[in-house]
Write a structure and sequence with these properties.
The chain is an alpha/beta fold and about 140 residues long. Helix content is about 25%, strand content about 30%. The protein has a five-stranded mixed barrel with strand order 2-3-4-6-5. A hairpin with a 2-residue loop joins strand 5 and strand 6. The protein is globular, with a radius of gyration of 16 Å.
């Protein structure tokens, strides 16, 4: 029982810290993100981030020069097997302020993305992207 009570306390603490990190009162005209969150948070609790400007990292797959969309995955392995349960759609087709010309340069890369997260009908996506950059690779030798 102590174990379950401790897990509940940890869960409540995480939820409260997520809510606190998202409620900074920035206006819509500010391109800075409302939330610096992990991809795990977006996947596990998408309703908390719906409509928020987010800053998140992941592995991009399915991006090419013919379309302005793809998927952001937790791991490279998730991307290789297209495990969409561990992904968020990247959709920049409706963005008027996109700074991205050629999405293919990001395909298969570890990226940082800033945009508006939306969650509707079980579809998690980041759109209205204003920042998209490749993160430096860190070797483990």
């Amino acid at each position: 029982m102590k174990y379950i009570a401790a897990l509940r306390l940890i869960s409540v603490s995480i939820c409260l810290s997520v809510l606190a990190s998202c409620s900074n009162g920035r206006g819509d005209s500010d391109p800075n993100p409302d939330c610096y969150c992990s991809l795990v948070q977006l996947i596990a609790t998408p309703d908390l981030y719906d409509g928020k400007k987010v800053n998140v990292m992941g592995i991009a797959f399915g991006l090419d020069h013919q379309r302005d969309s793809g998927l952001l995955f937790l791991t490279r392995e998730d991307g290789l097997v297209l495990n969409t349960a561990n992904s968020v759609l990247i959709d920049d087709t409706s963005s008027e302020n996109s700074k991205t010309k050629d999405f293919s340069q990001f395909d298969g890369k570890h990226i940082l993305i800033e945009g508006v997260f939306t969650y509707k009908d079980d579809l998690r996506q980041i759109n209205d992207i204003w920042r998209l950059e490749i993160l430096p690779r860190v070797d483990s030798n």
